[in-house]
Structures are given as structure tokens and as C-alpha cells.
Amino acid sequence: MRQYNLCILGFGNVGRALVRQLQAKQAELREKYAIEWRITGVATRRMGWIADPDGLDPDALLAGQMPAQQSTISDVREWLEAAREDVLFELTSTDPHSGQPAREHVRTALERGSYVITANKGAVVHGYQDLQALAEANGTKFLFDAAVMAGAPVFSLFRDALPAVNILRFRGLLNATSNVILEEMEQGKSYDEAVSTAQALGIAETDPSLDVDGWDAMLKLCAISTVLLDVPLQPQDVQRTGIRGLLSEQVQAARAAGHPYKLAATLERTENGVVARVQPEQIALGDPLAAASDAFMLLAHFEMDMIPGLTMILHVPGEGTAGPDVTAYDVLADFLRAVRA
Amino acid sequence: MRQYNLCILGFGNVGRALVRQLQAKQAELREKYAIEWRITGVATRRMGWIADPDGLDPDALLAGQMPAQQSTISDVREWLEAAREDVLFELTSTDPHSGQPAREHVRTALERGSYVITANKGAVVHGYQDLQALAEANGTKFLFDAAVMAGAPVFSLFRDALPAVNILRFRGLLNATSNVILEEMEQGKSYDEAVSTAQALGIAETDPSLDVDGWDAMLKLCAISTVLLDVPLQPQDVQRTGIRGLLSEQVQAARAAGHPYKLAATLERTENGVVARVQPEQIALGDPLAAASDAFMLLAHFEMDMIPGLTMILHVPGEGTAGPDVTAYDVLADFLRAVRA
After folding, report:
1. What was the pLDDT predicted at A316?
2. Which of A145, A153, A291 is nearest residue B291 as measured by Cβ atoms?
3. pLDDT in tens, A99-125
4. What is the pTM (predicted TM-score) of this model?
5. The pLDDT value given to residue A318
């Protein structure tokens, strides 16, 4: 039996769902994986840095009863030292331009030789090569399956289950919010009304611009290229057009004609690297993207040297309420992958 | 650098494709995986047991220039002893009723502590629990990803990339031959004409009964239940109806109505184990199986406790000619997974 001290940085919906799943799977983790855990650190901007190397009470954390921050802790390194972490779950929100402060959180824990699991796209896009090299040098793991299509193990599929393939082309529907907004527009809503509906469903953020302007899909595309194609891709390398400019009539006419609009993400390997774009496209029958038949499906399609085509479709929870659960599962799965290897 | 002695039992299209891929990926295996290989044994019913612990010439094997069988070798154990194998690739054809002689081949090599990779469904369905236990007891690996949807890593997806999930329901299109025959019938051909077309395409066997009577899909369903749901399932436990009884008019009318017939395989977990069936079904819009839009797609859809739905669609090579290449890739991938772990 191995005991792991877990630290959770960012304690929103995903962090809470992770704690609930750790509790629900406690017996299974013990019996099937010989793993025991305790939470020795939790931190958020509001609560500050909370650490107890003897373990915090998970039920109290879920009930919002947080111990006070130790006055001696003023940054992530001091917090991790106090918590004596084996694993850092980095669950802060993504900064698309720099990946900070997540990158520094990840780096600090990797330098300490700890496993780091993140759902943060920014840290992957802006820091992957350095952080991965640091993890290897320190004999630890940096895993981030929840950063793209959380619930579908896109990265571990290739790392663990599809060795020695080269990806030639990728097509994806990577942003659920755009899917939902376009489907609402197909049913006659204006763009603004559709955004409001997606917000009411808990799918769109108060500021939906990261989603509707293609930033979210573009960051995921950069992560896929950097990690899976081994071609580092930065935001400025991607031709990016969002769905904001589409008119309701246009979207309805496209659906009526059987070629609905989707926010499509495409990578193509060329002699000089990759060509990457995110843009609204009318999806023809026969396009791999046509396999996603409703708005609550995300899709990743790979064409490879050894396999003509492999498509993964993730059915995302409809009402947005179970979304954090699926992301939290993917984070938990990364933890199991890390400690098993 | 680690050197592996490879033995190939059954040297048909898949075995030959495997040798070509080992050659094509030789530099990559050396550089990325620190693996060197040589083929020390090849055996078929026609050629007999050929072994040379110093390595056979792959080009000569591919050209059909086989050394003569040593007269001292009369069975698989003597052959493996002579070849000093590290890895057995068991590529003989499937016997649906007993899984023999593949099971004995697998057992013999596992007893010798070797890795065993097979594409043989029969060995998995009829032997999984014993063979897996034997592999674990001997500190080796028994892998068989090519047995179901070769090219889509169905088994390693769950073993490596989706730990700690429980599968509640499975739906699949697992048999390409039935797909193709039904599509030909939709275009007006009779059942017999459609079978002939599938045979001409190299997709259906001379005797298509394993495919059209649902045996192939049923064995794959048994393998999925046994391995992934941990509920051993034997052929007699599956309610099985093939496509032979369908009329061309019926199939055409179903397609015209937008609910085409497919040979659907379904597993549902119940309180008492699983309920399993293979039968022709009219696929409604919204059914996960509807995501396979043409005959050259196989599909596996999983509903799990932690993830509402995950669908994998494998685009299979259209003309049948590249089919052995994809199977061979999956066999090669299992080899890399085995020696890396």
C-alpha cells in the first residue's frame, strides 16, 4: 500500500468533484491499485494557502469549512513544502496568452520531484517542452489529459495505446459552447439569444469570448500539435476565426441544406511543420466531423501512417452540471497513470 | 539497447505485413524504444516449424524463400526451444468453438515466460482467464488488441488510458463484412450478389458464415465482456441472429426511411452479470451506432460510470488490401506495449 499526499490548487467545481470521486473510489483504489491518499493542501485565491501534512478533512473541505491559512506561507513553494506533497493537482483557470501562473505552479512542483496533473491548457501550450523535460530529468510525470476533451484520453491514447504512429492529419470539434450556440441559432435564435441560452445551461462563461472567438479550440489544437505531432505550435501560428460573425439565417440555411456549420479545428502535417486553423465550416456528409450528430458531442479525428482513420467522440453531459465530474475523472485517471508507471 | 527474438506462428497476410512494418520502423524502434529484433522462428501448417536462433532473413521470408524445417522439431514447444523466443506472435486463424490450437500455442509460450501477442479471438474468448493468470504468474504479458477492431486499441484504451471506470453498456458495429453486404443490398443487390461483391473486394471469406451469421461479432462481444467488464461470457450466453435472413427490399426500405439495418452488438450490465446480443437492427438517428456513416467504419461505444459516453470509430481500408497492415500495426503496437511495461 502506498500513501500519497495530494495538493489541490484551485478549488472550484472540478476540485470539489475530484475530492468526491477520490472518496467514492477510495475502496477501489485501495483494493485494485494499492493506493491510499490524503489531502494535505488546498489553495485558492480567496482562501489562500492551506496546508496540513497530517491531512485535511475532505468532508469539511467540501462543506466549505476551511482551516485558516498559516501566516508563514506566502507562495506556492512554501505551501508545497508545508503540505509535503507527492502530487499537485493544478486546477486554476487558463490564461491563454502566457499560461501563467499555472506554469510556475507546475514547475515548482516538478522541481520538487512531485507528480503534476493539470487541466490547464495554457500551461501545456506555453510550457510543455520545458515542463516535460523537467519532469523527465526529475524522474516524475507531468500529465494533462483533462486539458483537451476531458473524459476522452486523447493524450494517453497515443502515449500508451498507440505507440509508433505518426499523425498526418487531425480534425476536431473541440469546443462545446460553440456547438451549443450554433445549434440554438439553427433553431432560430439570434447569436445573442443563443449565447444567453448557453450561459443559462451552465455551458458558456459570463464572458464567452474565449469560446466563441475560437481561443479555446485554438489552444487545444496547439496542445495536440505540440504533444502528439511533436511540432510546437503557438497561438499566433494558428489561423483563427470564431463564430461571432455568423448570422442566424446563414446557420439555419446551412442546416436545412444538410451541411451545418461547426467550429472546426484542423491540423495538417506538411513538409515544413503543420498548417493549423480554427474556423466555422459547413460540414459535408462524409467529413469525419459529421459523425457528431448533436451539440453535446466533442470529436477528435486522427489520420495516421499506420491507421487510415480513428475518430473519438465524447458525449458530454447535457446540462453542464456533470461537466466538472468528467473533468475530475480525467484528472483522477492521470493520477492513477502517473503512480502506476 | 534490448534485442528480442521474435517467432511468428501463422505466416499469412498479417504475418507478412508485420515483417514489413518491423523493417519499415526498424530505425524508429532503435532510436525511440531502444529495441532491436530478429526473427528466429516462422511456422505454418504448410511450411512446418522453421527456427534459427541466429535469425532468419526477413527479405527471404517475404520472398517465400523458406529454409527447410529441422527434422528434430515436431511441435510448438520444440519449435520455441529451437528459436529461443522472447516474443510469440500467434497469428493462426480463429476457431470459434474452442479457440484451439491457438490457446495451446499461447499457453506454451507463456509457460516459457515469453511475451505473447495474438490476433486470435478464439484464444481470448475461450482462454482469457487462464492465460492472463499464467502470464501474471510468469511475469510476462498476454496482449491481443488486434482481436477486436484491429487498429483501434479497444483493450489498451481501458487498461492504460481509462483506469478505474466501470462500463455499464456497450454498443458496437464489429463486423466489416456484414456492413459491406448490407450496403450492397441497400443498392439493390440480392443477398447472394452482395456476398459475391464483398468476396471480390477481399472483405468476405470464401465461406462467409462466420461473418454473416454473427459469429465474428459475437466472439468479439464475448472478448469485450470477459476482458473489459470482467464478466466471462461464452458464445452460448449471447443471443445471436445474423443477417442471412434479411431481404433486399427490406434493407432498401429501411435505408430509404433513414433507419438502415446494421448488425449491432450490445452488452448491458445487469445485477446478474450482462445481457448480450448480436442481431440486425434498424439504427435510429440518435443511436450511437448512427455515427458510422458508411460501410467501411467499425464502431465501439461505451457508457461508463464516470463518462456518459465515448465512441471510437475505426475507418477501415476500403478495398481490403490494407486490412492486414492495420492488424499488423496493432500487433506491433502490442509488442511495444509489452516490452515497455
Report:
1. 84
2. A291
3. 999 999 999 999 999 999 999 999 999
4. 0.94
5. 67
Q: Give every CB contact of residue B312 below 8 A, 6+ residues apart in sequence.
A: A310, A311, A312, A313, B149, B152, B154, B157, B299, B300, B301
Q: Using CA atoms of A326, A126, A227, A242 in order, give the dihedral in degrees to the nearest 10.
A: 70
DSSP string for residues in A75-128: SHHHHHHHHT-SEEEE-PPP-TTT-TTHHHHHHHHHHTT-EEEE--HHHHHHHH
**Residue B161, pLDDT above cutoff 80:** no
For residue B162, list chain A residues with Cβ-Cβ distance below 8 A: 153, 333
pLDDT for res B70:
77
Contact B314 A309 (CB under 8 A): yes
Give the position of cell 449491432: B264
Query: pLDDT-derived band of residue A298, with 50, 70 and 90 as boundaries?
Result: very high
Handedness of CA A208, A214, A217, A219 (dihedral sign): negative
pLDDT in tens, B56-83: 999 999 999 888 887 789 999 999 999 9
pLDDT at B341: 63
Reading the block at residue B259, the C-alpha cell is 433507419
- pLDDT bin (cut points 50, 70, 90) of residue A322 is low
List Cβ neighbours of A276 (8 Å cut-off, separation of 6 or more).
A221, A222, A225, A233, A237, A238, A239, A265, A266, A267, A268
Instruction: Using the predicted structure, report yes or no on whether residue B206 has a pLDDT greater than 90.
Output: no
Q: List CB contacts (< 8 A) between A157 and chain B.
A: 153, 157, 161
Tell me whether strands A87-90 and A2-9 are parallel, antiparallel or unpaired: parallel
Task: Please state, in angstroms and as integers, the Cα–Cα distance from residue A239 to each residue in A55, A311, B193, following that order.
Answer: 47, 23, 49
d(CA A79, CA A51): 6
Residue B143 near residue B117, CB atoms below 8 Å: yes
Amino acid identity for residue A340 in this structure: R
Taking residue B131's Cβ as centre, other Cβ atoms within 10 Å add up to 21
Residue type, A95: D
Contact present, A121 and A98 (Cβ < 8 Å): no
d(Cα B237, Cα B175) in Å, to the nearest integer? 19
Handedness of CA B183, B185, B191, B192 (dihedral sign): negative
Element (H, E) at B269: strand B261-270
Q: Which residue has the higher pLDDT, B202 or B13?
A: B13
At A193, is the pLDDT very low, low, confident or very high (cuts 50, 70, 90)?
Answer: very high
Looking at the DSSP bridge assignments, the partners of residue A273 are A270
- Going by their DSSP bridges, the two strands B35-44 and B2-9 should be labelled as parallel
Long-range pairs for B199-206: beta carbons < 8 A, 24 or more residues apart:
B201/B319, B201/B320, B202/B319, B202/B320, B202/B321, B202/B323, B203/B176, B203/B177, B203/B320, B203/B323, B204/B177, B204/B180, B205/B177
Q: Using CA atoms, how far apart are residues A34 and A48, in angstroms rounded to an integer? A: 32
Task: Tell me the C-alpha to C-alpha distance, in Å, between residue A250 and each of A277, A281, A311.
Answer: 21, 12, 28
| Closest by Cβ to B162, choosing from A285, A309, A333 | A333
Confidence of residue A2 (pLDDT cuts 50, 70, 90): very high
The complex's ipTM works out to 0.93
Per the omega criterion (within 30 degrees of 0), is the bond before A67 cis? no
Q: Which residues of A touch B325 (CB under 8 A)?
A: 306
Chain B residue closest to A32 (CA)? B164
